[in-house]
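User: Can you help me understand a structure? I only have the sequence.
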Amino acid sequence: MKHIAKKRFGQNFLTDQGVISSLVESISPKKDDLMVEIGPGLGALTKPLMQQLEMLHVVEVDRDIIAWMEKTYVHNKITIHNSDALKFDFSSLGNAIRVVGNLPYNISTPILFHLLDNVAVIIDMHFMLQKEVVERMVAAPSTAAYGRLSVMLQYRLQMEYLFTVPPEAFDPAPKVESAFVRCVPHASLPYTAKDEALFAQIVTAAFGQRRKTLRNTLKGLLNDEGFEAVGIDSQLRAENLSVAAFVNISNYLSQKN
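Assistant: Let's start by predicting it. Here is the structure, written out as tokens:
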């Protein structure tokens, strides 16, 4: 029986064999890797990964897909976790995890932030995402795509846009292009925020009204004296600041508190 994609889970199943081969080649799985796939769907990536791994963990919320997987796969090669990826404790699998997946468009950003909380146990991540999301992830300052997602991910991760995937590679075909991205946690942070909660608060406030100047968006957090102390023009907008600049603001404020 053919599984029908469910809108509530944002399901679009990858079917293009050429694209699948490129994905697996980019991931480059090794036999003893501790790998977890988020949202395996109908096994486009799962099958070729299982051929190269001793064991593959998969996290899947759709019970119908799990029932299909349990009938389809050899169980000494796969461990199925019936869980919402947003609630799954990735650190429970071990301390050297590789994460892969074709992430549902509707919850891709929350999943990325959830994985940041588990970044201490992650070696690397390879994801298929909406192209626009990948462009935001890797965007440089002073570009239209640069925003809160760019800053928060780039603080923790080194990211590489690998290639674009057309809608017709999926069934059903989404209305947008997709892209494949590699994310590798920094071995040591290039810039360290002394108070990461404060850093996140500043980034969120700065991009809350991205057309406004920093003087307006950071009002109540940073005054004229503060802008002068960190060497930042208060007439700039959030999109003009590098990750390092946001860390500098955060560290200046954490010293004052």
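Now, to help you interpret it: DSSP finds ten helices and nine strands in the chain. The chain has two domains: 7-185, 196-256. Let me know which part you'd like to focus on.
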